[in-house]
Prior knowledge:
- Keywords: Signal.
- The protein is α+β, with helices and mostly antiparallel strands.
- The protein has helices at residues 3-18, 57-66, 93-105, 140-149, 173-180, 197-205, 220-223, 243-251, 267-277, and strands spanning 38-43, 71-74, 108-116, 123-127, 153-156, 184-191, 194-195, 209-213, 233-238, 255-259, 262-265, 278-280, 292-299, 305-311, 316-317, 321-324, 328-336, 346-358, 363-371.
- It has 2 domains: 22-260, Metal-dependent hydrolases (TIM Barrel); 273-371, Immunoglobulin-like (Sandwich), CATH 2.60.40.10.
- The chain is flat, with a radius of gyration of 25 Å.
Amino acid sequence: MNLSKFVFAFLLVCFIASLPSVAQNRREVAIPDILGYQTLKCDFHMHTVFSDGDVWPTVRVQEAWLDGLDVIAITDHIEYLPHSQDIEADHNRSFEIAKPLADQMGVLLIRGTEITRKMPPGHLNAIFIKNANLIEREDWWEACVEAQEQGAFVFWNHPGWKAQQPEKTLWWSEHTRLLNAGILKGIEVFNYDEYYTEALKWADEKKLTMLANSDVHSPIGMTYPVGQKTRPMTLVFAVDKTEEAVKAALLDQRTAVYFNNTIMGDRRFLTPIFINSIKVMSQKIGLKNQDISRLQIHNSSDVPFLLKQRQPSVGFSCPDDILLEPHRTVTIELTGTSDEVAQMSVLKMFYEVTNLITKKGENLPVNIDVPNR
Ligand SMILES: [Zn+2]
Ligand SMILES: [Zn+2]
């Protein structure tokens, strides 16, 4: 090697070494594990260029990883393929392209598709399928039966979508038929930026699993700009992050839906989410009549909890409303109102959380107990 070649090689090495390494930061979603289950953050509905989406399948994996998701399903339409002149492929292709990257990044990718029909029955997602090509059928019922035979978990997408149900969100006899055949197992209570009151009611009445999904078509940041809006998620309470465990949880209705700083679900999940998120910091209050004592409450979750007093406390007063901001500690004042308070070993406060909504559509009642004396 002559000197000029050596100098060139040296400069090349220096140049490469000086290139910034591309580091990405995943935003972890802080919602606690509960009841011995892992709280998995999931989005089971999204599109790519292989149907009517704007992005390549691997982009969906990268977005999911950055957004702190654990599990996703890419669910390209079977019957609506506006890019088919440019992209000729079968219905399994988007999954196959995304899978190696998903494995590498630790995002669990579930194979899925969207059965796309006019109302009724509208759009249905089938996830945990084996072969999307076989679900392409003339008859919607046959498509659903094929999905079921493949072991799919089928859910009704955006039931109140105005393009299909402009006047009223109706439940059709076709849905009853799907339900009775054991095919329909879930329903989107929230899709994109729409919440469907009827779907919450049906989830409760008909024992359907509740889901909240993005149904994203554009790059995710175009729909949910960073720092302004978080994408909707289905919280799945699973024994671990495996396909089997996620499917078992969905079949067992072990989910809650998380969107716009609100979580909706069964009380048995919401109560431990709240309890595991907050910590009452003050050890001993020693409240007496006419005294003012301070209590600190820390919220270690990403969810701001909005508390409203639902019943007055005995012997003391506490604030009507408390906002427990994410990752903050709040100080609240308790004021003794009778001599009774000095004798109490526990101070009991009765609130409801206005952004934790039960399956019955009610605010979650919570009690906060603080040791006194
Ligand atoms: Zn759809
Ligand atoms: Zn869709």
